[in-house]
From TrEMBL, chain A:
<dbReference type="InterPro" id="IPR017900">
    <property type="entry name" value="4Fe4S_Fe_S_CS"/>
</dbReference>
<feature type="domain" description="4Fe-4S ferredoxin-type">
    <location>
        <begin position="48"/>
        <end position="81"/>
    </location>
</feature>
<dbReference type="InterPro" id="IPR017896">
    <property type="entry name" value="4Fe4S_Fe-S-bd"/>
</dbReference>
<dbReference type="GO" id="GO:0051539">
    <property type="term" value="F:4 iron, 4 sulfur cluster binding"/>
</dbReference>
<keyword id="KW-0411">Iron-sulfur</keyword>
<protein>
    <submittedName>
        <fullName>Fe-S-cluster-containing dehydrogenase component</fullName>
    </submittedName>
</protein>
<keyword id="KW-0408">Iron</keyword>
<feature type="domain" description="4Fe-4S ferredoxin-type">
    <location>
        <begin position="82"/>
        <end position="111"/>
    </location>
</feature>
<keyword id="KW-0004">4Fe-4S</keyword>
Automatic annotation (TrEMBL), chain B:
<keyword id="KW-0411">Iron-sulfur</keyword>
<dbReference type="GO" id="GO:0016491">
    <property type="term" value="F:oxidoreductase activity"/>
</dbReference>
<dbReference type="InterPro" id="IPR006655">
    <property type="entry name" value="Mopterin_OxRdtase_prok_CS"/>
</dbReference>
<dbReference type="InterPro" id="IPR037949">
    <property type="entry name" value="MopB_CT_Acetylene-hydratase"/>
</dbReference>
<dbReference type="InterPro" id="IPR006963">
    <property type="entry name" value="Mopterin_OxRdtase_4Fe-4S_dom"/>
</dbReference>
<dbReference type="Pfam" id="PF01568">
    <property type="entry name" value="Molydop_binding"/>
</dbReference>
<protein>
    <submittedName>
        <fullName>Anaerobic selenocysteine-containing dehydrogenase</fullName>
    </submittedName>
</protein>
<dbReference type="GO" id="GO:0018818">
    <property type="term" value="F:acetylene hydratase activity"/>
</dbReference>
<keyword id="KW-0479">Metal-binding</keyword>
Length: 181, 748
């Protein structure tokens, strides 16, 4: 069985937000819903000694996802391959998952009354394609793949580079890894 | 949405090999077409430029294709100009009436009374030039003066062709001189990041700590417009520290001793006060470039936009490649020359049809010879002898736009009565917007071929619908000056009543009686096939070429000059350029102060103490486009200027405050981005801004003067680059103050 994960190479990210837009356009998200914001830390320091780091965000597809635990209807589902997604037909829009997610990765859709989130473009992945945010990234700053596959790039990066996970201390087991400078 | 949905949409769809044209990279697209309609667009994984990637704009191709704001039918103005009232007419009516008007203009005022303006690679340029040559007017133009063209022509004068293709895979050091691919050319940026990982050094020369600067080994935040001082000091260090390439100089160059003497006085200490850099920084960076060979100086727009000090800086920068031997060697800047095995843009332009006496009338030729017929003619004659081909005349040989606006408004040196603009919004994209506005109000007859109702189109008499990327076959060949080409096809025929502008020019030309023999190709595919037939691929149509080949790269030949020679009068790289000297310039680059500065005009500097740089691009916009596309605008809903945090504190300006930025030509407002990413004395403003949501009608015209950086820029002859006439976006003096109710009352 696969275990899908993403590695963000912040050494390569330039904060262009192509991923933000590619996700929104191709997944036909409402204008106010963003699955993939990019936060720019900086520029900080004092001219001319400045630094900036661009940090792409998204659903962390946690190993132990609090959003799924919080869901009272079973609409929030974690697949065996790790992908966390929402079955619209079961979602009643109670927003318990929105409260539970420490990453702000769940988005109420006021029109449909359901909650939306990144599903790692599972339909594309099923076809052997990469998620939109990964395909669109000119910089190759987003690397997607199977952590259970020792030959995959994500496996090599997670095991070969120094990576960090955001809010790791909460113990949700985020499956998005960041390579920092 | 359940599992596995969305897949059926594409069943039975045909994949067309198209290209994005929202910037010059022309990333490859796969367009999925079903029942004659585009149903999906994505990056082409097999296209060598982008490998499937797309920037935020590129992702907008599908939306752009059938966006509700697009102009889809020919429109004719009814009522007063600027009121926004248009009626739909047929193409036949539009073309008949335009042809009639152009015939009258020519008979009454001469062919030179028609000017045409083109946009950024959204236009079929050789077709426009062909029309203009048949009509007899030398007065076509683009924003060419601000974008690569001066660089191309100065370098061609010195080396015999512009070495614009960096061989990065073998490079050890890349210099980004006023270039920020991190916000303007994503596919390029990827290469820099890849090769940096392999050990390539990256030097970024930029007043701003840009996306690209943030990845640099050395960042040189110089004073805007002082690039000439830095380039001269680099030459000084490289020559006087003995870091030059003796063998290359001996074999390929003339004038080294003269140059060594010429730059002896330009020490890093001399340059420090002019550039605001530290002498040691200048030394260290010069050494990094000179000792990490092979290396590249990658083109960026900054010098082309620096006005008076821009041409000389380009000239000096070009000599850096020569003294280090970074030309046409593996890993250096490659000089492939013009295409030898297919028909170039220039060969499609029919420049021989323009009478000599009309060439002499080209507006600006008397003042700025390099990018007009006097300079172009001289340089093209030599390249034809050596390479057998000439640079594209469209772009490289154009009327001087500020002089055209002036001629429209004043009738001097002669009247310009007609203007046809295509995919360009001059009010936002040309210098000194108030002067452009006066011209667009004054011009007798204005046709705009457009995608959107822009502020400039809002003043046109006719607005004609332009076909977009997915509706055009596009050949990409670096403005017709590369020895390679990439080809893309129409995904679908133009929707509604849109046309590519080849069709527009051909139809108009035939109506003007120019004769079918001048337009033997019925459509662009036929013309494109004619151009590539000689490549010898086994294909029977242009579309088949796209589907089977997609691109043509001749076998890479390093040191081509060994067999071809250098296309200069001496047959060598001329460190003291005889071509430039013949055109009336110094053979070697001399120091010029930035356009406006405290030494030349202390009074001005008292009132305007800060230094302005503008014209640089920010994602997700391109030039003055995309402000109306909400799926992009949400990323940057309002215009922002960049101000240093210490300066902002002194001026009582806080993050997100609206501020006025004022030069002696006028003022605009943008919001403050307060940051250490810029020198305390430098201000950066975003370009292109207007507000489509307000409507492109008088009196506001979409707020065209409100946040538009070109209200601040200067096009006065004395501020323009002496070689080619590029006007000044950078190195101007300005002041900044908070917007208050009291200081807003007077309006803009």
């Amino acid at each position: 069985m696969a275990r899908y994960a993403m590695v963000m190479d912040t050494r390569r990210c330039i904060g262009c937000q192509s991923c933000t837009v590619a996700c929104k356009i191709n997944n036909e998200l409402p204008l106010d819903i963003i699955y993939n914001p990019v936060f720019t830390d900086g520029p900080k320091g004092s001219f001319p000694h400045v630094q900036r780091t661009d940090i792409p965000m998204m659903c962390m597809h946690c190993e132990d996802p609090p959003c799924v635990h919080a869901c009272p209807t079973g609409a929030s589902i974690q697949r065996e391959d790790g992908i966390v997604w929402v079955d619209d037909s079961k979602c009643v829009g109670c927003k318990a998952c929105v409260m539970a997610c420490p990453y702000g990765a769940r988005h109420p859709n006021e029109v449909t009354g359901t909650v939306m989130k990144c599903d790692f473009c599972k339909d594309r992945v099923a076809e052997g394609e990469r998620p939109w945010c990964v395909k669109t990234c000119h910089q190759g700053a987003r690397i997607f793949g199977d952590l259970d596959d020792v030959n995959s790039e994500v496996f090599k990066l997670v095991n070969g580079e120094r990576t960090v996970r955001l809010l790791d201390e909460l113990g949700t087991g985020p499956c998005v890894y960041y390579i920092m400078d | 949405m359940g599992e596995g949905s969305k897949v059926s949409l594409l069943e039975g769809a045909e994949i067309k090999k198209s290209a994005c044209y929202f910037c010059h990279n022309n990333c490859g697209l796969n367009a999925y077409v079903k029942n004659g309609k585009v149903v999906k667009v994505e990056g082409d994984d097999n296209y060598p430029i982008n490998n499937g990637g797309l920037c935020s704009r590129g992702n907008m191709n599908f939306k752009f294709h059938d966006h509700p704001d697009r102009i889809n039918y020919p429109l004719k103005r009814v009522g007063k100009r600027g009121d926004g009232n248009y009626e739909r007419i047929t193409w036949d009516q539009a073309l008949d009436e335009i042809a009639g008007k152009l015939t009258r203009i020519k008979s009454e005022f001469g062919a030179e009374a028609l000017a045409t303006a083109g946009g950024t690679l959204r236009t079929d340029d050789w077709a426009r030039r062909r029309f203009m040559n048949l009509y007899g007017s030398p007065n076509g133009f683009h924003n060419a003066h601000l974008c690569w063209i001066p660089t191309f022509m100065i370098e061609t004068a010195i080396y015999g062709w512009c070495p614009f293709e960096p061989d990065l895979a073998n490079s050890r050091c890349a210099v980004m001189w006023g270039h920020n691919p991190g916000a303007s050319a994503m596919p390029e940026m990827r290469h820099f990041s890849d090769f940096q990982k392999k050990g390539m050094k990256l030097i970024v020369v930029d007043p701003r700590y840009t996306e690209t600067a943030s990845k640099a080994d050395i960042w040189l935040p110089l004073r805007p417009g002082s690039d000439i001082a830095l380039a001269l000091a680099w030459l000084n260090v490289i020559i006087w520290e003995g870091l030059y390439n003796q063998e290359f100089l001996d074999n390929c160059c003339t004038g080294f001793d003269e140059l060594a003497q010429h730059v002896a006085e330009y020490t890093p200490e001399w340059a420090a006060s002019k550039t605001w850099l530290d002498p040691e920084q200048i030394r260290e960076s010069a050494r990094m470039y000179a000792t990490n060979t092979p290396g590249n100086i990658v083109w960026g727009v900054a010098l082309d936009q620096s006005g008076k000090s821009g041409g000389v800086a380009t000239h000096a920068r070009a000599l850096l490649r020569a003294v280090t031997g970074n030309i046409d060697a593996p890993g250096s800047d490659l000089m492939g020359g013009p295409a030898q095995d297919f028909i170039t843009d220039e060969e499609m332009e029919a420049n021989d049809l323009l009478p000599e006496e009309q060439k002499l009338k080209q507006l600006g030729a008397d003042k700025f010879p390099l990018l007009t017929w006097p300079g172009y003619g001289k340089i093209a004659a030599i390249t034809k002898q050596v390479w057998g081909k000439a640079p594209t005349a469209e772009w490289m040989c154009e009327a001087h736009p500020p002089t055209v606006w002036e001629a429209i408004t004043t009738g001097k040196p002669y009247p310009v009565k007609g203007l046809i603009s295509l995919a360009t919004n001059p009010l936002n994209s040309y210098g000194d917007s108030k002067k452009v506005l006066a011209a667009l109000r004054a011009v007798d007859f204005h046709v705009s071929v457009e995608y959107w109702m822009t502020p400039s189109a809002g003043l046109a008499d006719y607005i004609l619908p332009a076909a977009s990327a997915l509706e055009r076959p596009i050949i990409t060949s670096t403005y017709g000056c590369a020895d390679f080409l990439l080809a893309s096809q129409r995904a679908v025929q133009p929707m509604y009543e849109r046309h590519d502008d080849f069709t527009f020019w051909r139809e108009l030309s035939l109506r003007m009686g120019h004769g079918k023999e001048n337009w033997p190709w019925k459509n662009l595919e036929e013309a494109n096939f004619y151009r590539i037939q000689s490549l010898g691929y086994e294909v029977n149509s242009y579309d088949e070429f796209v589907e089977k080949q997609r691109f043509h790269f001749p076998e890479r030949e390093y040191y081509k000059y060994g067999s071809v020679g250098f296309a200069t009068p001496s047959g060598k790289i001329e460190l003291a350029s005889s071509t430039l000297a013949d055109l009336g310039f110094s053979a070697m680059p001399t120091y010029q102060t930035p356009v406006e500065n405290e030494d030349d005009d202390p009074e001005l500097a008292k009132e305007f103490p800060l230094v302005l740089t503008t014209g640089g691009g920010v994602m997700p916009f391109h030039h003055s486009e995309f402000f109306n596309i909400k799926e992009l605008r949400f990323l940057r809903p309002e215009p922002h200027m960049l101000i240093n945090n210490e300066t902002a504190a002194e001026l009582g300006i806080e993050k997100e405050d609206w501020v006025w930025i004022e030069t002696k030509r006028g003022r605009i407002k943008q919001k403050a981005d307060v940051s250490p990413a810029i020198h305390p004395r430098v201000i950066f403003t975003e370009r292109g801004w207007w507000y489509p949501e307000r409507g492109a009608k008088d009196p506001d015209l979409g707020g065209v003067l409100e946040s538009n950086c070109n209200v601040l820029t200067s096009t006065e002859d004395k501020d323009c680059d002496q070689y080619g006439g590029s006007w000044a976006n950078r190195g101007l003096l300005c002041k900044v103050y908070k917007v208050t109710e009291a200081n807003t009352k007077g309006g803009l």
